Amino acid sequence: xxxxxxxxxxxxxxxxxxxxxxxxxxxxxxxxxxxxxxxxxxxxxxxxxxxxxxxxxxxxxxxxxxxxxxxxxxxxxxxxxxxxxxxxxxxxxxxxxxxxxxxxxxxxxxxxxxxxxxxxxxxxxxxxxxxxxxxxxxxxxxxxxxxxxxxxxxxxxxxxxxxxxxxxxxxxxxxxxxxxxxxxxxxxxxxxxxxxxxxxxxxxxxxxxxxxxxxxxxxxxxxxxxxxxxxxxxxxxxxxxxxxxxxxxxxxxxxxxxxxxxxxxxxxxxxxxxxxxxxxxxxxxxxxxxxxxxxxxxxxxxxxxxxxxxxxxxxxxxxxxxxxxx
Length: 326
Known about the structure:
By secondary structure, the protein is α/β, with parallel strands linked by helices. The chain has twelve helices and 14 strands. The strands form three sheets. It has a seven-stranded mixed beta sheet, sandwiched between helices. Strands 9-11-10-13-14 form a five-stranded mixed beta sheet, sandwiched between helices. Strands 1-8 form a two-stranded antiparallel ribbon. β6, α7 and β7 form a beta-alpha-beta unit. The chain is globular and about 60 Å long. The model has no long low-confidence stretch (mean pLDDT 96).
């Protein structure tokens, strides 16, 4: 069994290397992904080992990068695009929404576009404007693309493998502030379906649902709540579109309470869809309203204020207490 301990960022690098090794049609494209190895060094060493024809440094033009990837996919390639920072993706939004997401339906199922768009997202790194966004709900609203986000090294490796091997376009959100956190990765055993939520910590009194960077925060909240005799179950959503409502429903039917946590603003966030669906499905099981914890409906603040903006341990625990108080 080939189990290795590696950081989440290293797991993404290893997954890209495996994909390049396994399939000559896999290409990596993006700003500074080649010689520099990316601003976070996620693609470090790949151009040296696979050449400039397969790990391609592009101009600073996100719309052109994604448009080129779409053309390559139409010719049988499997491009993996890196958007350097979350806030840089919007010039490519038109290509993603009007072309990438619609081509399969437009062709009546005859055309597949196996394009993976990697986006480092979220805050917590003290960056300047446009470098700490959480735009996942904007993409989850678009039919025709899948939206996923790993929270740990094992999922980072295997969910990227599954995205590259699949025939559907995938927006792959990487929690940049978790890049350097380590975990075990079994390089031979896939970590389940990328669209099935996992129980990160079992519990009986309340369910916390999170994905990406907030899973660790919720696990810390559950551990703190346990010291006060509260049993909190933590669900790692893993996929934001599609959402595994069945796993959430099974947990809520057991605990009878739900708090949804994400970095993105609460207003029109993915937590709103989860709250609505679970209220519909579990109305007679719930003993308190579904609560949501997230960022504020405001532009992302300067670095010195981001800890006030980001949902942290105290805000999650406050929601847990409010839910249990009903």
